[in-house]
Amino acid sequence: MTLPKIEDLVFKHLESLRAAEERAPSLLEGIPHANASSAGNCARLIGYRIAKAAESNPITGDSLFNFSMGDHVHDQIQAAFCAVIPECQIEVNGKIEDFITVRADLLYKTEEGKLVCGEIKSVSDFAYKLATGVKLKSNGQWNKKGQTGEGPKREYVLQNGISARALGADYLHVIYARKTAAKSEPIFAEFRFKIKDLDDKIDAEIARLKWIVDSIKKGILPAREYEDEIIENPAKKNYPCGYCSYLETCSQMPSEAIPLNSMPKVVPGHLNRKEKSWDLKDTTTQGKSSCI
Ligand code: SF4
After folding, report:
1. Residues paired with residue 226 on neighbouring β-strands, in sequence order
2. Ligand 1 pocket: which residues have CB below 6 Å?
């Protein structure tokens, strides 16, 4: 009896789960649209996602496993909110007109009856320290002299803000949870905002997403624009390009907007997936793996 290696077995299962998630119907099924989770990202990356372009650098098993750890963190926090706050809702779907869908992690009311939209981010120690400025000596990451917390990432606030807008919330609640909690060190950090204080930024990002959706409908892939700048060389831009599923395709194209039909053809997965001599059944519908 030949068994797959543990990495291959687990990664294959996680790939199946992800594929099932991607097949789940959306509130704007069949209509080109953006998702709030793309807010703040590179315009071309958002364009690729709206066009459902084949990925030249699909997510790898190690990242899928890391995300799955984050899913468990999400579940724990959501369960805690639901246990304590009456009528707290989780995974709440919504949309803005016919061009943005949202899915909020949490939606609950304050004692005064104000509606709060929550976004949970399970983060690395590096991201936690960047946002909070807290010293985490457990992994040897000390702060630079005078380093203070920068607050939550701009993208996260915009994503939470657009979800809050779609669901009619009064407040945003961005929750950071470390995936590597150590004894006597903080695990969580939370940041709250009134949506009316962020109206301009949220409006601008909604208008940007609409512009990208309209570009794709016209057959145009947007320029490589991120934070109001053009990315000239994706291969040398660690963030956001180093984490992008379209890095190889994008690197072969010019920076400016181009026709969608001029994209190079890619074989999805050819970069990161090894040929396997075995095949697991779709483990999302099996309950558990049936490979042995
Ligand atoms: S590789 Fe970089 S520039 Fe290209 S789509 Fe991805 S994030 Fe944007």
Report:
1. 229
2. 42, 44-45, 224, 231, 234, 240-241, 244, 246-247, 250
Indicate the domain borders of the chain: 6-286
Residue 126, both tokens: 């590096």
What percent of the chain clears pLDDT 90, i.e. is strictly above it?
Answer: 73
Give 292's pLDDT tier (boundaries 50, 70, 90). Answer: very low
The length of the chain in residues reads 292
Atom 4 in ligand 1: which residue has the minimum CA distance?
250
Q: Say how far apart CA 13 and CA 271 lie, in whole Å.
A: 19
What is the number of the ligand 1 atom nearest to the C-alpha of 226?
A: 8
User: What is the arithmetic mean of pLDDT over 12-39?
Assistant: 92
- Give mean pLDDT, residues 83-112: 97
Radius of gyration (Cα) for the chain, nearest Å? 20
Q: Do you find a cis peptide bond into 86, omega within 30 degrees of 0?
A: no
Distance 168 CA to ligand 1 centre (A): 32
The pTM (predicted TM-score) of the whole model is: 0.87
Please identify which residue in the block is written with the tokens 């939209």.
117
